[in-house]
Design goal:
mainly alpha; 78% helix; 128 residues
């Protein structure tokens, strides 16, 4: 059974909101930097953060912002369904991985030395 694919249609209003968010951020940063320089860095940062908050609010009212929020909620729900291993199980699996790595390292070393011996000593006759 397959789930139906849902296609999101981006309207012109959504595109306009996203463009407005980008312009608010860009213009807000420029205004905060140049026009509020006389009031000090605190006023510059406050204006920039307020305009950044406005741009984020505009983004989250768009269709893409709503989809991002829904994706975040679904991710949290799925994360809560995960069954995490106990400390003992995690330690055992770590031990298995280390043991496998050691065995593979020894196997590869043995294979390398065997091929080296076959090629250099038996076939080519180069004694070291």
């Amino acid at each position: 059974m397959t789930t139906p694919q849902v296609e999101t249609v981006i309207t012109q209003a959504d595109k306009s909101r996203l463009i407005a968010a980008a312009l608010l951020l860009l213009l807000g940063g420029l205004v905060a930097f140049y026009l509020l320089a006389a009031q000090g860095a605190l006023a510059q940062w406050a204006a920039l953060l307020v305009l950044l908050g406005g741009a984020v609010a505009v983004f989250f009212t768009s269709e893409q912002g709503k989809a991002l929020t829904a994706y975040g909620r679904e991710s949290v729900r799925e994360f809560q369904k995960v069954v995490w291993p106990t400390r003992k199980e995690a330690g055992q699996m770590t031990g298995y991985v280390f043991a496998f790595v050691v065995v593979m390292a020894l196997f590869l070393w043995f294979t390398d030395k065997t091929l080296e011996w076959v090629l250099y000593d038996l076939i080519l006759g180069w004694k070291r």
